[in-house]
Structure formats: structure tokens, C-alpha cells
Design goal:
The complex is a heterodimer of chains A (274) and B (563). Chain A has 274 residues and is mainly β. Chain A is built from three helices and 19 strands. In chain A, strands 5-1-6-8-9-10-11-12-14-16-19-18-17 form a 13-stranded mixed beta sheet. Chain A has a four-stranded mixed beta sheet with strand order 4-3-2-7. The model of chain B has no long low-confidence stretch (mean pLDDT 93). The chains are: A mainly beta (274), B alpha/beta (563). At the A-B interface, loops of A face helix 2 of B.
């Protein structure tokens, strides 16, 4: 098990794709300290920015668990491409957390920057604070979104959460910004609280569940029926009743948008169209 | 400065040298008879192949279209970037690398001369600015003239000589090298939302046909004595059944050829060799095209080989690009370039498991293998349309090794595999033929007198690949060959080693070649012409020409025309 402590308050963005259990695996403390890391446009070594501490644990497999203590909100790309192991962060963390990760688990006890879990294929990201924009969304310009895995946010999330999603699950227990599930093809997004609007714009498939207030549904969605409950994943069912909308018709989509009836009395005029 | 390349196996097809062990003496950037052996710097090339520097006849590397492609695709850049070093500049991009990176990557593969094939005359300044920033290679660019209003008007009136004088003017004005024709007539029709579907369709307003444009410009090309032939992207490109259009295009200028010289170059022929009524029943038309080309001497082709990868398609063929967007649903850019041409860009992924893409892959290789004379077909991917130029080593491996082809055949769509002609083709090319297809043939087709060969007086653009033809059998050890061609052991440009084993040793500026076409009676820039510019173009006449001081390293080639 490896503990990392930032040695100072970072002012420049830091590219730290080397902070990943797969890369730390099999390396001793000295070797980890020598790994290359970029601070702004200058190449540095890990030891110049972090204090590295190796902790021997009895029952856990050695060095596959990384814990970061402190504010690393300027540090980007932590856990990118990771395939196994765990990362725990006690503090805020920067952009591109767990980008293209293929397995393992990242837990953050703080807030997370943009593009968390961007293009991820498998694994789990658990965020106990808020997530910023583009949660699970692909890199700018790309249409290859999240292809598996699970992201759980206990706080709020920003705009375009789950854009271009192809598979997997995003659960947000707080509020979410605009354009949640933009152009998604498949997969599930669950928002327990309110949505800012334009949910599921241009979606062609998949499922979005809104358990809070949604000011309006896009005009390119049609009401299908009222459902009593919705299944989110194995052993997790949310009780409704929910309005079920289908869309987005601009893309000939067959996506499902569930909106909780109780919190959205202003949508009751749709009922006569069923 | 003297340099001597010793003991390499030399492949120099233009001078008929086929793998002989010999020394290449170089002085002041030129190949000479001999140098002082004691004084000259030596490169020991024993056990390696020595070839002239590579020549690429068709690759979209500069201009507004390429640049818009870069803007459209941030996701193409973010995984592939090169940091700056003491000698090189930084850059990004996989299928559409930034200008400097393009130059470095070509140099690493041993290419020293490249041709940018589509430049709307209106965007000439932008294109030359980017070419100035493309280091390590000599380059030239072809203006798009097939739908230029001046050409259409004079051809409509049947004034070939007048048309020739205007083409001579635009060639010198835009600092171009050859006449590029894209979907003749179709692009003008696209301005009003239409297209042409055969070479005998009428072009709206002008009332002429693609056949007349092709024949007219072919005659113009001959009158002006331009070094290259007309460079044609056929009508109906990328549509099932279009191999007939490609054959019609070749046939329509058959009688204009003389002295066994080529009269037309059909570019990225793979995209024009589809047989069958629709996509589901698509077949390869390579056999028919190869048969025609084998029996006629007035045609040269390039492959436009599909690579299974994510790439960006960009052509001046606006209607085709729109169709491609409709087919793929990908993001797109489409543009009508005023009175000159159109253009479009769509990102595209060629998949092994797609029937159509696998057939396309097969067509490119079938063309290259079924056409017996390697001097008639050249290796390209129509970078970046069918794949990035960095994939050339893969194509070399497929051409040289049946085993390499089978390895890929086993991975493609089974229905496409059953219909492919490749399993029935045993031909495997040797290093000599590869040298023809990648440098000598292209230099000959472009009539670049000092490029593509290693005779006395030629530019000292030389590539050394670390593969021993005596011990390595390319048909079995195709991976070794692929690796060698990916990274030249030495790339020598103008007598200086610019790249060695993938490392750029020196940042050199390449020259921009252009034609100074001298006609006996050049056109006069009348007030009427300026008025037309004011009326139909977004730029005034005064801002249109590219002056010579715009080019950082200018290399004019004087051509005496017959008009």
C-alpha cells in the first residue's frame, strides 16, 4: 500500500497519469519516487511533488492500493488507463480522473474536476463530493463515450453528464446540470434529485431516470405511458410512478426518459396524450 | 561537402539498377560520378537497401481543407502528440498531423518529395503558408481547375487555346504544379444542390458535360506541355457500380494520348472500382480496371489503399462527402468554394468486420497486384482519406507477402473474404517493384527530372532501409520488412542526413516546386476580369495571386507552352 502526500499547494496543472496501481505495481518506494510527472511544461519526478510512503499491510496484496491525502485539485489524469487495484483520495481531485480506466476502483472523499471517468470501459468510480462537467463523457470532439463500468456521485454533477454513453451506469444522488445523457446510445443514468433541463438531447437509446424536478421535457420526446417503478441495476429498483417519454425524435431515437410524477405536477398535461 | 554511401544494395529502377551492390557518391547535394574517397564522409550501408527518397503523388497535407479537418477533430490529436526537442517542433495528430509533424513523419519513413493534390485557387495563399511550414520534404500542389468558371466558360465556347492561356496564368498565379480535376461538373452542380451521375450528364447553366471538361483540360495539358498529366478524381466516386464511370473516364481521353505517354492519372482508384448495384452486393471492379490498364498505355493510377483504422476523409467532392455523412452519421463540414470548387470533411472509421470496408481494402491490393506494370500504379492511401500515410509500411508488407495478406484476410468480414480476389493472386512484389511504386514511378509520372533516381546529376535525396535482401525473404519475414520501412535507417535530403533510425537530426526547409508556364501570348488582366472578380469572388483581383516571395524556398520549373 502506498500513501502519497502533496508537498505543497500546487499552482500549476500537473499531469500525473503515472499515479496508477498498474504502474506502481512491483516498484519499490525509490522507483515510484523516480517516476516522471509533468508540472506545467516542466518534467519533474514524483518525489519533487509528493511525499511517498510505503505501508506494509498483512492481508492486502501489496502496492495495488494507493491513498492520496490532501488537495490534489490541480492534478490531472490520476488512475488513467488503470486495470486493477484501488485508489482512494482524501481531498479534491482534478480533471480526467480515471480516464479510459478498464478496471479497479477509485474512491474520492471530496470534489472532482471535469471529465471524471471519461471514456471508461470498466471499473468503479465513487465520488462522495460533487463532480464537475462532462462526467463520463468522451474527450472533446470524440463520439466514443463510456463503454462500461459504474460511476456513483453522492453530490451534484455538472453539465453533459454521460454524453455519448454506450454502456454502463451513472448514479447521481444529487442534482445534475444541463444536457445529461446528451447523444447517449445505451446505458443508464439515474439522477435522484433535480435536473437543469435538456435531458437526453439527441439520445438514440438507453435510459435516463430523473427522481427530482425537471422543468420541461424536450419537445422532441413523446409520452409513452406511466410506469410504477424502474430498475436501475441488480437489486436496485426505484419506486414511482414515473412518466415514460421516448426520444429523441430528431435522431429517430428510442431512448427512455423516466420522470418522477410526484415531483413534476406541471407535466401532468402529458397524461391526456397517453 | 562530400558524402559516400558505401556497399548498399541499390534499387534505382529509372536507371535499371536492381539490387546491385554499389557506392553512391554525393557532392553539394547532387549525385556525382565520384568523390575523393579519403576526404568524403562515409555511410556504411552494407547489408542495407539504398533507394531514392520516396515520392508521394497524392496526399492531403496542407490547405484550408486539411486545416478545417484539424479543427474538426480534437480527438484525433489528443492521443498522438510529439513534444518539442532541441531540433524539432512540437505537434499533434494521427490522421491529420500538424504541418511540422507531417514533415518529420515523412522524413522518418524515408520520403523526400510529396504532392498536395487539392488546392482551390482561392485558398492558394493558405496552402502555401502551410507548405512553407512543412519541413524536411520538397513539395508541390495541384490547383483544382475542373470546375473553375473560366475553364468551364472557354470550354463551353470551344476555345481550347484561350482556355490554355488562362490555365497557364492560374498555374503561375497560384504556384501550382498540375491540373487537378475532381468530379468534373459535379462540383459546379453541387453549388445548386445537384450532382452529375455520368460523364455525359449536363452541368447546370454551363451546358457542357464532364466528358468535355476532361477532354478539354487534357488537350490544354498537352498544349501547355505540363510535366504531369491531368490528375483526375472521377465522377460517381464512392458509389456502387462506379467502375464503369472510371473506365469511361479513361476511355474518353484515349485518342488524345501520343508517343505511348500517359494522358490521364486516375487517383485513389480504389474508390472508383466498385462493382454491383448496391452496397449489399458490392463487388470488386479491380479486375476490369486492371484489364483495361494492362492493355493501354495512356493511364496511370494510384491505389488509395484502405487501412483499417480511424481516419478523416476530406476531398473537394462536396456531394460525395455529404453522402458519406448521411451513411455514417458522423460530424461533417461541407463548403462551396465560390466559383471554383467545393469541399467536405467527414471523420470515418474503416472496420475489418464491415463487408463494404473489407471489400474496399481488397480492391486496393487487387488493383496493385493485377496491374502487371508497376510503372502504372503507385502506392498511396490518399492520405488521410483511406488511412494516414504512416501506414505505408503495412501496404508494402501486404504487397510483398502473400502470407501478410492472408493474415489480414483471416481477420476480415467472412462474406468479403469469400468474394475477395486476393486468395487467387499469388503475385508477390520484390524490392525493385516497391521502389517503382513508391518513388521511381511516381517521379516519372510527375516528370520530376532530379527526383526518384540515383543517376549522376540527380538530387541527393536518398533513403537507406535496414533490411538485407540477401538474407531476408520478404514474403515470409514481412514483419521485418514492415519495421524497416517504418523507420528508415538514414534519410538523406540534399546530401545531408536529416533523419537516422527515427530520430530527426536536422530541421531542413524543403523547396516548393511550381510551374512557370511561358506562353507566347499571355492573357491580359483587363478591367472586365477585375470587375468579374469584384462581382463573383470574395477577394479582389489584387489579393488573388500568390507572389513568389510568398514561398520561403521557391523552386520554379520553367515550361515552354505551345500556345
Amino acid at each position: 500500500m502506498i500513501n502519497l502526500y502533496p508537498t505543497k499547494q500546487f499552482k500549476l496543472p500537473i499531469m500525473a497519469e503515472c499515479i496508477s496501481p498498474d504502474i506502481f505495481q512491483g516498484k519499490n518506494r525509490e522507483e515510484i519516487e523516480k517516476l516522471k510527472i509533468w508540472e506545467g511544461n516542466k518534467p519533474k519526478r514524483v518525489r519533487e511533488l509528493f511525499k511517498v510512503e510505503g505501508v506494509k499491510t498483512g492481508n492486502q496484496p501489496e502496492k495495488t492500493a494507493i491513498t492520496i491525502y490532501g488537495d490534489v485539485s490541480k492534478v490531472r489524469g490520476i488512475g488513467a488507463h488503470m486495470k486493477s487495484g484501488t485508489i482512494a483520495i482524501q481531498g479534491d481531485v482534478g480533471m480526467h480522473l480515471g480516464e479510459e480506466m478498464e478496471g479497479g476502483k477509485i474512491t474520492v472523499h471530496g470534489n472532482v474536476g471535469g471529465w471524471a471517468g471519461s471514456m471508461m470501459k470498466d471499473g468503479t468510480i465513487e465520488i462522495h463530493g460533487n463532480a464537475s462537467h462532462y462526467l463520463g463523457a468522451p474527450y472533446r470532439g470524440s463520439s466514443r463515450g463510456m463503454r462500461g463500468g459504474k460511476i456513483i456521485v453522492y453530490g451534484n454533477a455538472g453539465n453533459e453528464a454521460g454524453a455519448y454513453m454506450r454502456k454502463g451506469l451513472i448514479k447521481i444522488y444529487g442534482n445534475v446540470g444541463q444536457f445529461a445523457g446528451l447523444r447517449m446510445h445505451k446505458g443508464i443514468i439515474y439522477v435522484q434529485k433535480d435536473c437543469e433541463g435538456r435531458v437526453g438531447a439527441c439520445m438514440t437509446g438507453g435510459k435516463i431516470v430523473v427522481g427530482g424536478f425537471l422543468e420541461s421535457v424536450l419537445p422532441t420526446f413523446t409520452i409513452e405511458s406511466i410506469k410504477k417503478k424502474v430498475k436501475i441495476e441488480e437489486n436496485e429498483v426505484v419506486n414511482g410512478p414515473f412518466y415514460l417519454f421516448l426520444g429523441d425524435l430528431t435522431e429517430n431515437g428510442k431512448g427512455k426518459l423516466y420522470v418522477l410524477k410526484k415531483k413534476n405536477p406541471h407535466l401532468s398535461h402529458y397524461e391526456k396524450l397517453i | 561537402m562530400e558524402l559516400l554511401i558505401k556497399n548498399g544494395f541499390v534499387y534505382d529502377p529509372i536507371n535499371g539498377v536492381n539490387g546491385e551492390k554499389m557506392d553512391i557518391p554525393i557532392r553539394d547535394g547532387k549525385i556525382v560520378e565520384k568523390v575523393h574517397e579519403s576526404k568524403a564522409r562515409k555511410i556504411d550501408a552494407s547489408g542495407m537497401i539504398v533507394m531514392p527518397g520516396g515520392v508521394d503523388i497524392h496526399c492531403h497535407i496542407a490547405g484550408s481543407e486539411v486545416n478545417t479537418g484539424r479543427l474538426l477533430r480534437p480527438e484525433d490529436h489528443f492521443k498522438d502528440f510529439e513534444r518539442k526537442t532541441a531540433r524539432t517542433r512540437s505537434g499533434v495528430g494521427r490522421s491529420i498531423p500538424s504541418t511540422f509533424t507531417t514533415g518529420y513523419r515523412y522524413a522518418r519513413m524515408g520520403y523526400t518529395t510529396i504532392m498536395n493534390p487539392s488546392m482551390p485557387p482561392l485558398e492558394a495563399k493558405h496552402t502555401h503558408e502551410e507548405l512553407n511550414d512543412t519541413p524536411m520534404v520538397d513539395k508541390a500542389t495541384y490547383p483544382l481547375l475542373g470546375d473553375w468558371w473560366f475553364v468551364l466558360e472557354y470550354l463551353k465556347e470551344g476555345k481550347i487555346e484561350e482556355c490554355a492561356r488562362y490555365v497557364a496564368w492560374i498555374m503561375t498565379t497560384t504556384k501550382g504544379y498540375a491540373i487537378k480535376i475532381v468530379n468534373p461538373g459535379g462540383l459546379e452542380a453541387w453549388g445548386s444542390g445537384r450532382n452529375v451521375s455520368s460523364i455525359d450528364d449536363q452541368v447546370p447553366y454551363f451546358g457542357i458535360t464532364p466528358r468535355e471538361i476532361l477532354r478539354g483540360l487534357c488537350k490544354v495539358n498537352k498544349l501547355l506541355n505540363l510535366p504531369h498529366t491531368i490528375h483526375v478524381h472521377t465522377n460517381n466516386l464512392g458509389k456502387p457500380g462506379n467502375y464503369l464511370t472510371a473506365l469511361d473516364t479513361m476511355k474518353c481521353v484515349q485518342d488524345l494520348a501520343s508517343d505511348n505517354k500517359p494522358a490521364i492519372h486516375i487517383t485513389h482508384c480504389q474508390f472508383s472500382a466498385f462493382k454491383g448495384p448496391d452496397w449489399r452486393t458490392l463487388r470488386s471492379g479491380a479486375e476490369e480496371i486492371a484489364k483495361y490498364v494492362n492493355n493501354h498505355s495512356h493511364v496511370t493510377l494510384d491505389m488509395g489503399q484502405v487501412i483499417f483504422t480511424d481516419t478523416t476523409t476530406m476531398t473537394a467532392d462536396g456531394p460525395f462527402q455529404y453522402t458519406l455523412h448521411e451513411l455514417s452519421g458522423n460530424k461533417w463540414v461541407n463548403h462551396d468554394v465560390e466559383t471554383e470548387t467545393s469541399s467536405g470533411i467527414v471523420p470515418f472509421r474503416y472496420r475489418r468486420k464491415s463487408y463494404v470496408h473489407a471489400i474496399q481494402w481488397s480492391i486496393g491490393l487487387e488493383l496493385a497486384l493485377l496491374i502487371r506494370d508497376s510503372w502504372k500504379i503507385f502506392m498511396t492511401t490518399d492520405h488521410p482519406n483511406a488511412g494516414p500515410f504512416t501506414s505505408y509500411p503495412k501496404i508494402i508488407a501486404w504487397l510483398m507477402s502473400r502470407k501478410a495478406r492472408e493474415a489480414t484476410l483471416n481477420k476480415i468480414n467472412p462474406r468479403a473474404r469469400n468474394r475477395s480476389l486476393l486468395p487467387s493472386i499469388d503475385r508477390e512484389l520484390g524490392f525493385y517493384e516497391i521502389a517503382v511504386m513508391t518513388r521511381a514511378g511516381q517521379a516519372k509520372a510527375l516528370e520530376l527530372k532530379n527526383k526518384g533516381h540515383l543517376g549522376v546529376g540527380a538530387d541527393a535525396d536518398i533513403t537507406i532501409y535496414n533490411v538485407n535482401p540477401e538474407t531476408i525473404d520478404p514474403s515470409r519475414k514481412y514483419k521485418t520488412v514492415r519495421k524497416a520501412f517504418k523507420q528508415a535507417a538514414y534519410t538523406i535530403k540534399g546530401g545531408e542526413t536529416v533523419a537516422k533510425n527515427g530520430e530527426i537530426l536536422r530541421h531542413v526547409k524543403g523547396a516548393t516546386m511550381w510551374l512557370d508556364v511561358q506562353v507566347s501570348n499571355p492573357i491580359e488582366i483587363t478591367d472586365e476580369m477585375k470587375r468579374r472578380f469584384r462581382e463573383y469572388w470574395t477577394v479582389e483581383y489584387e489579393n488573388y495571386p500568390v507572389t513568389e516571395n510568398y514561398l520561403e524556398v521557391s523552386h520554379p520549373i520553367t515550361v515552354k507552352a505551345n500556345v
